[in-house]
Design brief:
This protein is α+β, with helices and mostly antiparallel strands. Helices cover about 30% and strands about 20% of the residues. The protein has one domain. The chain starts with 5 loop residues before the first helix and ends in a 7-residue tail after the last strand.
Length: about 45
């Protein structure tokens, strides 16, 4: 069994890999009372 913070730790590791600034995420957002939301970035070109 994991702790209640297991998911939070996995999200933190994902943010560290995909976010330019993990402390101010723009791709993996926290939706309070619900969970998390992934925001796809726009591709220019």
């Amino acid at each position: 069994t994991g702790t209640t913070r297991t998911l939070d730790q996995h999200i933190l590791k994902l943010r560290q890999k995909v976010e330019a600034n993990p402390s101010q995420p723009v791709h993996i957002l926290t939706v309070h009372g619900k969970g998390y939301r992934f925001v796809k970035s726009a591709v220019s070109g």
